Structure formats: structure tokens, C-alpha cells
Known about the structure:
Elements: H1 12-23, E1 29-35, H2 39-47, E2 51-58, E3 61-69
Antiparallel strand pairs: 1-3, 2-3
Amino acid sequence: MTVIPDLQGRGVGSLLLSGAESVFSDVREIRLFTGEHSLANIRLYERNSYVETARTSAGDHELVHFAKTLA
């Protein structure tokens, strides 16, 4: 999922995350990743109860992996 720059910071990302969580109600866990320099994404995921699970190398930067267990 991506939010275009003009709409970032307006809650669109949070709506997308909660929408994905509700659409996939039979899924027990959601995993996602972002680049280590995408600090706004990292804050968004942490605010929405996603927990960092790993970091992997992707050339000259790292990918930060997150997971959230759903009820």
C-alpha cells in the first residue's frame, strides 16, 4: 500500500491498515515491511500495534519487518 505524498499525514495510511485488517478477518497475523529511513511509516505501524520482528539487508539500507496478531 502506498499513500501519495499530497495525502500523507491525513490518516489515510491508518484507514488503509484498519481496512486491510477488517477485510482479512480470517487472517491471524499481518506482516509488512518498510525501509529503515521511512520514519513516518515506522511510526504509523507502531501506533497501530505492529511490532518490529526483524531487519534485513536490502543493498545499502535495511528493511524493517513488522507483524501484528489479529484477534
